[in-house]
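Entry 14. Structure prediction run on the chain below.
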Amino acid sequence: MFGFGMEYEGPAFWLPLIWSALLALAVAMYVVIDGFDLGVGILFTAARKGNWRDRMMLSVAPIWDGNETWLVLGGGGLFAVFSVAYAILLPALYIPLILMLIALIFRGVAFEFRFKADRSQFLWDNAFHYGSLVATFAQGLVLGAFVQGFKVEGRGFAGGTLDWLTPFSVMTGIGLVCGYGLLGATWCVMKTSGELEMWARRKSRQFLAGTIVSMVIVSAWVPLLGLDIQARWVSWPNIAYVAPVPVVTALVCWGIYRAIAGGRDVAPFLLTIGLFLLGFLGLAISLFPYVVPPRMTIWAAANAVSALKFALVGYSVVMPLTLAYTAYAYWVFRGKVVEDPAVGGYGH
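Output returned:
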């Protein structure tokens, strides 16, 4: 649709395409499956103490650490195949990435200590909540900075330490908090029962409203950034290809609302995943094939063809295995969390 990369031929053309698809899959998997457990953390301190919080944490405890494997796959893959981009993006985003990692550490410690704590349990409740909140907001800052683009001279980052911190990136951070909150709330609708499930339905409607408002604001803001993103959406013939995306997005938002109000258990969560994937598709339409917007494409940033082939062998083994054990873990721990965690974590 955009005609990029036509000066490259053979493996030098299609290998970066394959790798960009693989890395996009890894990032999308991380956002979706770690997003809901971060969302549970965002909701955590708003829930009643005791049974509600125990059940919320039990719903994600068996799977949360495996979810973050996708973050490692994405970051490791970027270093292995687009090392120039890695060398530019990391200095540009050091502070929000470090904040995210520190927050994730607090979350991980909270998982291990909360159930053993007595008088200090409130500390671990707050560590779980604020770790989730800060990690999500930091990821939103990274997303906003990525959309805005980076100052590059030669093959290095030429911007300032705080270039990532702008009103637009703050808005994307708020939007991602709303989106992950929606994922977490619909996960609790699917995995819990009774009064907790009803409470999660109310929170789902609130976070759905916040997510829709955030999406509208960010979408209206992007053309004001002075990039060529607007032309990709409204110029002919691009508009003929991309027009269904916002229409389907609006229909999915309506479907989420109807599924929540209609008492559905699984549909709200699955539709919310669909909403995130549509947002990811919109991001790809806006920025592809740039791995360092607004100038460095995947072909310009790619390592040597031999390195891409070598890394692809390892990825072709690791990624299917990761998909397989992720699917198996979710199958084993399917069903709702029982209302009395003392009698066993899972069951109907």
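The chain has 15 helices and four strands.
Filed with the rest of this week's runs.
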